[in-house]
Each structure stands twice: as C-alpha cells, then as structure tokens.
Design goal:
The protein is α+β, with helices and mostly antiparallel strands. The protein is globular and about 30 Å long. The chain is 30% helix and 33% strand.
Length: 76
C-alpha cells in the first residue's frame, strides 16, 4: 500500500517508542496499516500488542535486520 505511513522510531528515545506506536495504531481504521521501522527486532512490542490488543492487530515482517527491521502493523 503506497499510502501507508512509515513510522521510523530509530531516532526516538526508547522510553517514548511504545506510546508513540500505540498512538499511531489508534488512528487506524479497520484494514488500515502502517510500517514500523526499528533498529532491532520489535518482538517485545508484538507481545505487548498480544496482551493489550488481542485479535485487533495484524503483524507482518517485511525486513528482519541486520540494520533495520520493518513490520507492517494493521488493524483488523
């Protein structure tokens, strides 16, 4: 999807990353998504989504390192 927002959090302070990502997720309508770019595997974020947004999100790795990880996060 060419109109997807790309949220590159590599320059954001770690303590601010998850709130920013969840804020972005909350703006999505059903079937919309955004691309997250991170400097490490965001697996802990995935587990947080599982705990807090069970069955409300989709998660698709587009790139898995070593320099960057790109994940498409969508709202179901």
């Amino acid at each position: 999807m060419s109109n997807e927002i790309v949220l590159d959090i590599r320059t954001i302070l770690p303590m601010n990353r998850h709130p920013l990502i969840f804020d972005q997720f909350e703006t999505l309508k059903p079937e919309e998504s955004f691309i997250l770019v991170n400097d490490h595997d965001p697996k802990p974020l995935y587990y947080q989504f599982q705990a807090e947004r069970t069955d409300q999100f989709s998660w698709e790795y587009l790139e898995q390192g070593p320099q960057a990880w790109r994940v498409r996060i969508g709202r179901r």
